[in-house]
Amino acid sequence: MNINAILGKVKDFFLAKRFGYYVGVAGLVFTLCYAISYCSIDQSIFSSLVIVFAWLGIAAFIALSLFKVTSSLAPVALMIFSFLSFLSFVGADGIIDFFSTQFFDGFSIGKFFALSPSVWFSILGLVLSFILASVSMYMPQRKKDETPELTQAGENK
């Protein structure tokens, strides 16, 4: 198989996608970013399940979006694994102690961004990846096929 045939197939793959797929890809990028930034978070609130669910969501999105039959399920898988990752983040052992000491006298945006960048970027990435995957789930993923439908007699409609 030559390089032009491969590039043609890749071009056809991306031309067959609609806007919903690209919103899902944006959610995938946020998932990748928080999976990387979460590795440097404070050890008192670290949970390895956050990273495991993030990578499972990335793998499921990529695998499901490759085929026409399953491409509409790709954002659903990303949304589910993003939600599981968020639940793992919230369920970490020291999360209540960490945030209660950080925001003892009230919450403000200044205090939020005074946290380490890995903490606030992980929180924003978790929330944004879930929101983008949820929005993408309701948007069309693929363009409709342009082939005419046949009637029972085999004639074109």
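(ticket continues) Second input and output from the same batch:
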Amino acid sequence: MNKIVLAYNFNPERLQQLRQVCMILKVNCKAVAPEQFDDAVGFLAGVKDCPQTAVNPPENQEDKLAETLEETAKKAGEDQDVVQVQKEAYQLLLQAAQKEMVFLCGFDMHMLNRFLASVKKSKLKNVELKAMLTPANRQWSGRHLLQELAAEHVYMKQFGKSVHK
């Protein structure tokens, strides 16, 4: 399999910086347009026999999720401070889902380490959301992957500090 980096939510300047990193490492870089976010990541990466149709989360669930969280908290008689914390976590989740994400395909551990070191040394410095192609996620949509990584990112930001002590 060819090495390729799928780039989600990159502005033109940062995309150019990512392309420079990829060029140095002799890795293809493909910017994924928002209208392709519902396509399977394996299809976008050129994985043989991977269909374009992805396993997607239901669309527009973010608003419904926020309403449901608030209603459930009120019905359960939870403290309004708890409701506010849930709202804030939800807002962080929405913001995180708009962040840049790189999806790495065909990378072994050595190449992954080279890529991460090169990003750190470049003007990019960091890309918070990163994932690699696996048999389990190859039929996921980019949108699904972004939501999963964003949720993980929010969780680690809120709770990870206490876990790592």
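Agent notes: The helical segments are 12-24, 41-44, 61-75, 80-96, 109-121, 142-163. The chain has one domain: 4-163. Closing as not reproducible unless the customer responds.
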